[in-house]
Amino acid sequence: MNRQKMMKISVEQLNLFYGQNQVLKNVSLEVYEKEILGVIGPANAGKSSLLRALNRLYEIDYARISGKIRLDGENIFNIPVNDLRKRVGLIFATPVVLPGSIFKNMSYGPRLHRKIKKQELNDIVADALKAANLWEEVKDRLYNSASTLSGGQQQRLCIARTLAMNPEVIMMDEPCSGLDPISTAKIEATMLELKETYTFILVTNNTKQAARTVDRTAFFLAGELIEINKTEKIFTKPDDPRTDDYIRGRFG
Amino acid sequence: MKDKIAEKLLLFIAFSAIGSLLLITFFIFQQGIPLIFKIGLSNFFSMHWSPTRGQFGILSMIIGSLMVTVGALIVGIPFGLACAIYLAEFSSKMVQKTLKPIIELLAGIPSVVYGFIGIVILVPFIRTHFGGPGFSVLASSIILGIMILPTIVSISYDSLVAVPNTYREGSYALGATKWQTVVKLLIPAARSGIVAGIILGMGRAIGETMAVIMVAGNALKIPHSILDSVRTLTSTIALELGYATGDHRAALFACGAFLFIIITILNIIAIRVTGHRE
Amino acid sequence: MTFRIGPRTSQIIAYIILLLMTIITIIVLFFIIGYVFKNGFAQLSLEFLFDKTREMGKEGGILPSIIGTLFVTVLAVIIATPLGVGSAVYLVEYTGGGLLRRIISFGADCLAGVPSIIFGLFGFIFFVIQLKLGWSILSGSLTLAVMIIPTIIRTSEEAIKAVPLSYREISYSLGGGKLDTIWKVVLPTSLPGILTGVILGIGRAIGETAAVIFTAGSSLGMPTSVFSSTRTLAVHFYILAREGISMEKAYGTATVLIIIILFVNFVAYRLMHRFMERYY
Question: What is the per-residue pLDDT across B53-71, written as a single tens digit (0 to 9) for each?
């Protein structure tokens, strides 16, 4: 068993403030390469805020931050923010498709960064859609409006859109929260397939989903990281009683 | 980085635009206020407007503007509200979709066309059937009333439509008829929007120039009946600017400044009343 | 004994009155346009449209006015649109909804309601006299531009604000910069709203008289440059009507004016529909 995994992201003493409101308190953790890290906890625990810190998206909310975050050892504040966000992708809870065709949604990202020839663009789009398990369903209607897709399909489109950027880390913020069980299953399967290639961080409210899919789990409560360990341990014999309470459904 | 350039460029643009707007405000006051101080407030608000004799009393014109505006509201509010209520509550979606743009088309007709119709049709009509010169408060009120109709209709309609359907459903469930619902529930609920629309219409009427010049007669005296000729503040500015010099010209700016203040106050009230302007 | 009208009866009466009043309003509208058209159509000959104006407007055509109106309006829109839209973009995207933005929005709102004669006053002294631009197309369009900028700022601001935050978030998380996000996501999405404001501005500018007569002047010659004075269609119509020079020509001019305005509005609606279809 290969336990010597490379560290992909390291977070040290992270604090995040929205105005007077502190949403992350002294959080320190590590994310290993090609693992799926689950982040669980009740509402307002800071889970989404953690993701938004990792790709510096909080900056558009005019929020303030202190602490260190490193990607592959590099301080993410020294990396140009556009590049950072290409490498660390984020998928939101509610699938949001941009107005326009499926193809337009897919090609928006890649075309931001360089001029791409039509053929290469078609390939990028097709590959990403295949990886997201959406290709078969849309290959004949790439130029239809993206809003004609179902909720589950739209979410997979969001995943494909992120994949088209060739990221290293994919963060998912409760991606299945509005979806039916079948779509959820499809997305979980996609994630497990892609685990070979990418590092995942999955925020979920659904403890059963976490237990099913992730390697290690981090439990957050009111902005603090309470416990982080292998999933099996968190769900059977957690160190902290609060973790235990949450897992057993005593609150949250 | 291109983002930085874009930000600086946009800031410059915003400054220029805002700057030009500030320029106007400042300019009007800078040209007009000194005159008011020069001739004194009691002169400015007196009855006598006689530029050749150095008298710049705007009171008669204020009264003229007021009469004409009130008249416009008397004509515009009933019809405006009636259209808005009919469209919002008593007509089908199809009718609404066709009629509303048509009424808004009324707003696109240039004021001079309204004035022209006034001269050609309304004024002779009033002269023959009611007496007087025809160029009158009555003619101005009718024309202005028609001109402010679209404003009142639009804003009142939007306010009525914005009232949540749950209000209506609740009322019907209690056995009320549509009309009762409208009168007792919907209009009070949409009250602030409707009032804002009326205030804005008022602002439009006060500021209207060309149409009024064409049908009001422009005699410099206080009208004793609605069939009398009348002169408004706006007409004075437009009629005399072409040849006014020195103090006379400054006085016209003072009129402009006065108008500016009144209309801005009306706008502020309208915005306050709704919280946000249409 | 009091005579009570039951609620059902009141409703029927109310309905009839409301319907009648609405019909009267519509009739008035059609009457106004119809009357002008009826008397003006006869004037619409090729000669009328393409001939120079003669005898102070009693004879000849209205070509100088058509050209003049075109220049003044187009120039005004070219100046006002980037300024207005750019300001709106800055207000929404770069000021974070703070006090500054609310003050500027408020200012724009107020100025959008200022009557055109005030702009005429301003333009006359500032552009014509102080800047020594004289009565000219340039003075006219600058004045008109200043007049329609507040309207454009207002409508553009609303349209840009209406673009969902999530669209921007998606663009940013895909690595887009602020300029990319604004140019490729926010502006295209808000374009219909922005265009509405611009077209409203155009409509207002074309029919405008008070602001133009004191700045572009009332010369009847063919404009040769932006420094030429010109008499726009609305101004020409006004002068013909008020001075009683020629009623027939007045009707003709008004007809052309109204047709142009109707056309602009029509184009606006078509453009918007086409755009919405392409995008949604």
Answer: 878 888 889 999 999 999 9
Token pair 């959820």: residue: A184
pTM listed for this prediction: 0.84
Chain C residue numbers touching B110 (CB-CB < 8 A): 206-209, 234, 257-258, 261
Partner chains of C (3+ C-beta pairs under 8 Å): A, B
Q: Does A145 map to a domain? A: yes
User: Residue C159 is part of which domain span?
Assistant: 47-279
Is C97 at the interface with chain A, CB within 8 A? no
SS3 A134: coil
Mean pLDDT across A81-87: 89
Q: Is residue B14 over pLDDT 90?
A: no
Q: Residue B180: which of C7, C110, C117 has the nearest Cβ?
A: C7
Query: What's the domain count of chain B?
Result: 1
DSSP code for A248: T
Query: Closest Cα of chain C to A86: distance in Å?
Result: 5
Asked if residues B141 and B228 have their Cβ atoms less than 8 Å apart, the reply is no
Question: Do residues A140 and A195 lie in contact, with contact meaning Cβ atoms separated by under 8 Å?
Answer: no
pLDDT tens sequence across C43-83: 777 777 787 777 776 777 788 888 889 999 999 999 999 99
Low-confidence residues of chain C: pLDDT under 50: none
Which residue in A138, A126, A134 sits closest to A156, CA to CA? A134
**CB distance B241 to C121 below 8 Å:** yes
Q: What range defines the domain where residue B219 resides?
A: 49-274
Taking CA atoms, B225 is separated from A246, B66, B73, B134, B205, in Å, by: 82, 14, 17, 12, 20
Pick the residue from chain C with its C-alpha nearest to A84.
C175
Residue B80 to residues A64, B77, B198, C245: CA-CA distances in angstroms? Answer: 51, 5, 9, 36
When CB atoms are compared, the residue of C173, C184, C280 closest to A89 is C173
Residues C76 and C204 in one domain: yes
**Predicted complex ipTM exceeds 0.95:** no
Comparing CA positions, the residue from A154, A126, A150 lying closest to residue A140 is A126
Q: Residue C110: inside a domain, yes or no? A: yes
* Contact residues on chain C for A99, CB-CB shorter than 8 A: 188-189, 279-280
For residue C199, being part of any structural domain is answered with yes
CB atoms within 10 A of CB C74: 14
CATH of the domain at B85: 1.10.3720.10
Query: Residue B268 has what pLDDT?
Result: 86
Angle at B11 between CA A58 and CA B28, to 5 degrees: 135
Cβ atoms within 10 Å of B120's Cβ, excluding its own: 18
Interface of B with C in 125-144 (CB under 8 A): none
A1 domain-assigned: no
